[in-house]
Structure formats: C-alpha cells, structure tokens
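Lay summary

Proteins are chains of building blocks that fold into shapes. Our project writes down both the chain and a compact code for its shape. Here are two examples, one after the other.
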Amino acid sequence: MKGQVVNEWIERANHALEMAKILLSKEEYFDVVLFHIHQAVEKFKRLSYSQRLGIKEDPILKPL
C-alpha cells in the first residue's frame, strides 16, 4: 500500500480514538464511545493485515 493511503487511514483511526476520549466524559454516550473504539481497532487491524500480507491495493483502504 502506498504511504499516503496508510497515513490517511492511521489518521482516521486516531480521529475515532480521539472522539471516543472526548465522549468518554459523558456516561450516557458509552455506546458511542465503544463504537468509535471499535472503528479505530478495525482500521488499525486492516492496515496491519494488509501490510503483513504485502497487499498492494486494498479495495476498502482507498485514498480519501
């Protein structure tokens, strides 16, 4: 995968984590916090698998 695409997806995952941190202060949004954490984990996992397997083009990990 191209470096720019990887960096964009890392940024997306980090944004999801940051949103989870912001919402964590509000107890009534715990389900949304879990959603954003899950999204971040999925993005990091997909990047990790793609890089480990040497996948050059991933149909889901597209440029922004």
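And here is the second example, written the same way.
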Amino acid sequence: MFKSIDYKRFFISLFLISTFIGVTLVNLETASNLFNSTQSFIANNFGWLIILSANGFLIFCIWIAISKFGEIRLGGTDAKPEFNFINWIAMLFSAGLGIGLLFYSVAEPVSHLSSSALFEEGVSFNERATLSMNLTFLHWGFHAWAIYGVVGLCFAYFAFNLGRPFRVSSFFGLESAWSRVIVDVFAILATVFGIATSLGLGATQISAGLESLDIANSSFLGIVWIIIFITILGLISVVLGLNAGIKRLSQLNMILCGCFLITIFLFGPTGYILDGFVENVGSYIQNFISLSTNVNAYSDSDWQNAWTLFYYCWWFAWSPFVGLFIARISYGRTIKEFILGVVFIPSLLVFIWLSVFGNAAIYQEFTTAGSLANAINEDISVSLFIFLEQYPGSTLLIGLSLINIVTFFVTSSDSGALVTAMMTSSNQADSLHRDPAIITRVVWALTLGIIAIILLMGGGEDGLKALQTSVIVTGLPFAMIAFFAARNLYKKLKIDSNKI
C-alpha cells in the first residue's frame, strides 16, 4: 500500500500546503493585496495572451479531431473504452463544471443585463439580453472545454500510449528528477487550493439555501458542519473508487440535473425560453469571432478582467485537475471521439442549460425589473434560490437544488482527492488502470475539507477568496505549460500516425 506513494511529491505538497495557508492567514490583508495586485498585473499586461491561448486551444482541438491524428486510439489500437458513452459524459461533465453552472446560469446573465460597465443608458432590453447571454455562452462554452480537452488529451496520450505517469511533468522530457517534482507539486497545490476554496465558498452558498428554506440560520458553525458532511460523503465515494463511487454519483448528478432542467422548462416561460435559445445560439455563432477576441483594447478593462479573464484563468488553473480526471476515464477512445465528447457535447449541454435557466431569469427581469438583479448585486450566493421562489412548489424546487448542489460538491471533492492521489502516487505502468492507494485517497479527501475549515476559521470568506485569487494567478503559467505540452503532443502524434 505505502509502496505506491511517491514520498517526495506527497510530503513536499503537504508541507507547502500547510506553510502557504499558515502564512496567508497570519498575513491575510497583505496576502490578499499581493494576490489581487498580481492578478491585476497579469490581466492588464497578459490578458491578450490568455485570450489568444484559449482561442488557440479551441482551434487546436478542431484541427486535431479532423486531421489524420483523429483516428489514433488512446491506449493503442486494441484498447476498449472502460466506461460507456453516457457514464463517460456524466463523469466528465460533473468534474468539469458542476456546481458553478447551477449558480451562474441565473446570476451571470442577470448581472450582465444590469451592468453599467457594459451598457449605456437607453440601450434596449433586447440588446442587453442578447449580449448578456452571448457573454455567458462565451465564458462557459467551447473555450473552457477546449482548455480541459487539450490538457486532458496530453495526460491521456502520454499515460496510455507512452506509458508515462499521470503527472504534468510527463508532458516534457525533463532530465532532472527535482525539476519534475517541482512542476508536479505546483500542479498539486493549484488543484488542492482550487477545490478546497470552492468547497468552502460552496458551503456558504448551501448555508444560504438552508436559511431561505427556514431550515437553519446561516452561521459559521453551520457552514463547518456542511463542509464536514460533504467531506465525509466525498471520502466514502473516493474510497469506493471510480466505478462504485464517482461513476454512480455522476449518474445521480445528471438525473437530478435532468429533472431540474425539465421542471424549469415546463413550468417556466417555455415559449420565451425556446425563442431565446434559437436567438442566443444564432447570435453567438454570428458574433463568435468578435466575442472570442475582445480584449477591451480601447476601453476600460475592469469588466473584462473581472469576468472573461477571471474565467479563462480559472479554467487554465483547474486544467491539471479536470484534464487528468478526464484522461483517466477516457481510455479506449479515439482522439476524434475524445474531442467530440470533451469539447462539443458538453458545450451543447451547457448552452441548453444556460438557455433554460438564463432566459427564465431574464424573463423575470423583463416582467419585474430588479426582482433578481437587486438580490444578486447584494448577495450572489442566493441568486438561484430567489429565482426559484417565483415558481409553484418553490420549497420543493429549492430542496431539489440543494440536493443537486451537494452531490456536485461531493463529486468535486472525491474526484479532486482521486486526481491528487494519482499525482502523488508512484504510478507504475501497471497501475494506470487502477485507483491509487486508499491511504492517499483518504488523506487528500480529508485534507480538502480541513483546508476549507481552517481558512474559514482563520479568515472567513476573505481567507477563502484570498486563496482562490492565488489559484487564479496560476492560470497564466498553466496556459504556458499547456502550450508546450500541446506542442510535444503534436510531435509524438506525428510519430504514432506513421504506424497506422
């Protein structure tokens, strides 16, 4: 059991995590200012590069899928998929977006709709609604999944076809053992901090939902118990393993999402949603190039930095976590099938979800101006619950949404623990298809919950947001890592394609 642990990566990561959190909490204000100023520096000076990288990865995905490389199978010519298509899509969707989509499908379109940074006075409601949905599509659609797709494909090919460990360092021919360790530990820290902060911030959102149902008042102790509950469920799931735990939970996620989506579609403004979907997709396609390349070169960039660049940096920072998980479940797929399943099908599902919830929310603003916008501007964590209060059986709907939120958080917790355990395991060639040692999965599952609680205790939401900002700062270096990884992937694929 202990032989399968890579002690350098495992203990160095734990030590640096403890040190970084301790220093951040002791100097919270200074750390927050440092992270925020670094994020602003990156956005103001390298925003163009991040936007260009996201577009480049999307182009790379399309090209590699339709090229001769598309027929190469992950794992070799005789490899068979480990999971059927439905389970595969369910797992990668749950890990890739999950909880964020539940909240921001309502909050983001309404936030854009009422944004003075985007619209001057006198702009028609139709123009504001169309651009709001276009921007939401941009932030959650093709570009996000293309970033995950490129990194995931690198993990899958280098591991399954070349027999290398499931690590970021496997993308490169690094000769020094310590240089490989440094690259991997960097990825581990970004993964752990990203999931832990999301867990903590998500617990505060669940607490707000419970308060809206008059089940419990939102309090620090209540949030801690929510984190403990999610951590325990995540621990059980990750111990059960990929097939018995994470796969079943992902199936439950998709069933609950389907029920939730159909309910809002049928009992909401159905005609308005359908009209909006057709117009949103058409407008998004029509304006795709201008939306995708907008860097606010000739205007104030505060909005761009706070939204588009924030999202892209977050997708890049999370790409090692999500990419590795997607790679682990994609054995036996051809590259063409991989790109279709990782980039285009999830994007279509996202557009459907956003069209239902986003257009239903915009309809509420159309009929009762400010009914959602005021609440969202005051506290974005309650946006989904305020939105659901307008529907018949709102208590039941809010309860269903809370269950869905919890299952998504558990999926993030268990898949995050699994991925981190994979990156800190010895990764012998014969272990690529087996779950890492239970001890590493347990340690990382507990660590994620403990970090979230410590951050809340030491700095409240400010502590969580400070660490979240530190994760976003890693988006630029990971964009560069992904670029060189894609270049190395192309070189290896040229060699492999000659054997077909």
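What can we say about the second shape? Residues 220-267 form the longest helix (48 residues).
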